[in-house]
Amino acid sequence: LSASLTEFELIARYFARAGLAANPAQDPAVVLGIGDDCALLNIPAGQQLALSLDVLVEGVHFPMAADPYLLAQRALAVNLSDLAAMGATPVGFSLGLTMPRAEPQWLDAFSAGLRDSATHYHCRLLGGDTTRGPLQLAIQVHGTVPAGQALRRSGAKVGDDVYVSNTLGAAALALQVLDGSLVTLSSEQRADLLRAYYQPEPQLCLGSALCCIASAAQDVSDGLLADLAHIAKASAVGMVLQANAVPVAPVVSDLVSQEQALLLALTGGDDYQLIFTANHAQRDNITQLAQQLTVRVTRIGRVVSGASVKVLDSQGVAMGFTQQGYQHF
Ligand code: ADP
Ligand code: MG
């Protein structure tokens, strides 16, 4: 990769570092980490392995010249969010890194961001592959979930309630800060928005607590409506949402019109909140759980027969949206 740094030195220096690399002496799930042909994991009896892979490409999924420390944190967080959406608990992750050249400063900041998130979420690096090419990060997370209890997209039933965690819209508005189209804001608002984009909090505790409670779940990556449509399709149901129940991030309400704020919350992506459905008999359980975990959980609608996801305004009239979240193709 570089005349001054061999591939093996690079891996040893930046990826096998303390706090980032899985350490079998400290982690009973890990039998063998970085350094051999494969990593080896223990899967406890009664648990299933949950896997998810995301590829992030410079210029497509993150801006050119993104801060490497924050980029690393975002890359791991969006993957952990997929585990959260299945109710799984992280065990570790693999990293496929392609980059044009080995820049020590970039690698140092990138691996420090990964290390801090790996430590925070108890999800350490198990192995990977490093090659030369355009900047791309592929992360595969590995988690465990009690056998048969994973939260799927396909379990929503007519009559269920529809919920979302925390608030929506901030990550989508952050993109307007990053592309320079939103410039009139305080440094605090700017920091709030960029945090939402670069450091989303995967809802791991909520996800695993929902295992015996929710009928279906997913995380919001493409946008609330687009992602609810995935649950609706997989479950062969429709949904009706109340526009005024959708929790918009306060920083978004402060910065744009009410109409714009709602549009961002409904169709903006990248928030990595959980959306889920549950039988109405679970309402008290869900309220209690949200209090225990200090997570805001909002009931935003219900599951109906049909195939579409409709949004009703305060008069009960269906609202039209041209854009159902972000589509890659
Ligand atoms: P192989 O030729 O068997 O694929 P490599 O030379 O690619 O082995 O990798 C050597 C070791 O370093 C392996 O254990 C691999 O998992 C690990 N590794 C390589 N790249 C990375 C990376 N980006 N992050 C973490 N571990 C890595
Ligand atoms: Mg390899």
Structure description:
With 329 residues, the chain is of the alpha+beta class. It has ten helices and 13 strands. The protein has helices spanning 7-15, 68-86, 104-120, 170-178, 187-198, 204-209, 224-235, 250-255, 258-267, 283-293, and strands at residues 30-32, 40-41, 47-57, 89-99, 124-132, 136-146, 161-165, 216-219, 238-242, 274-278, 297-304, 309-312, 318-319. A seven-stranded mixed β-sheet has the order 8-10-7-11-9-12-13. The longest helix has 19 residues, at 68-86. It is globular. The relative contact order is 0.15. The model has no long low-confidence stretch (mean pLDDT 94). It binds adenosine-5'-diphosphate and magnesium ion. Residues 11, 15, 34-37, 95, 97, 125, 127-130 line the site of adenosine-5'-diphosphate. Adenosine-5'-diphosphate (ADP) binds next to helix 1, strand 4 and strand 5.
List the helices and strands and how they pair.
Elements: H1 7-15, E1 30-32, E2 40-41, E3 47-57, H2 68-86, E4 89-99, H3 104-120, E5 124-132, E6 136-146, E7 161-165, H4 170-178, H5 187-198, H6 204-209, E8 216-219, H7 224-235, E9 238-242, H8 250-255, H9 258-267, E10 274-278, H10 283-293, E11 297-304, E12 309-312, E13 318-319
Parallel strand pairs: 4-5, 9-12
Antiparallel strand pairs: 1-2, 3-6, 4-6, 7-10, 7-11, 8-10, 9-11, 12-13
Which structural category do the helix and sheet elements fall into? alpha+beta
Terminal CA distance: 32 Å
User: What's the rounded overall pLDDT mean?
Assistant: 94
- CA-based shape: globular
The strands making up the biggest β-sheet line up spatially as: 8-10-7-11-9-12-13
Q: Poorly predicted ranges (pLDDT <50, ≥5 residues)?
A: none
* Helix-strand sequence: HEEEHEHEEEHHHEHEHHEHEEE
- Number of distinct helices: 10
Please tally the β strands and state the result: 13
Which ions and ligands are bound to the chains? adenosine-5'-diphosphate, magnesium ion
Main β-sheet, in a few words? Answer: 7 strands, mixed
Q: What is the radius of gyration computed over CA atoms, rounded to a whole number of angstroms?
A: 20 Å
Percent in strands: 15-25%
Looking at the chains present, what oligomeric state does this protein adopt?
A: single chain
Helix content: 25-40%
